[in-house]
Amino acid sequence: MIAALLIASAVTVVDGSMLRVNGEPIRLLGIEAPDVAARCRKGRICTPVDPRRSKDSLKHSLRDPITIVPVARDAAGRTVAIIYAGGLNISCEQLRKGMAVYKPHWDSGRRLAKECRFARADGK
Q: Cβ neighbours of residue 1 under 8 Å, at least 6 residues apart?
């Protein structure tokens, strides 16, 4: 897992909730955005937004400085992190714009629930 750091390049947006930083996949803490290549599976709560709009929204949110604060690893072995761009928590920004849904069981330590005024602890 990478340590908390500041970066200014080598960032690629995969979808509305995942980046690659220097080739390493980084998932945004506590949110799920639609996968560009997938559809919402039955029984899941998914965002009603177009996957490409969600990805573009994340791209447009990225501005220097970018700070990555690793929190954990997910079941797939990816780093899960809080990412700040230009001082803004980009998970909160994706939620505020309606480009992702809040997943309370993915919010380690309820960090987003505390930081994002609209991410309620009950996930609604």
A: 70, 73, 79
What total of structural domains would you count in the chain? 1
DSSP letter for 72, please: E
Q: Is residue 123 part of a domain?
A: no
CB within 8 A of 27, min separation 6: which ones?
17, 18, 74, 78, 79, 80, 81
pLDDT digits (tens, 9 = 90+) for 70-115: 999 999 999 999 999 999 999 999 999 999 989 898 898 888 988 9
For residue 107, the tally of other CB atoms under 10 A from its CB is: 23
Handedness of CA 37, 38, 39, 44 (dihedral sign): negative
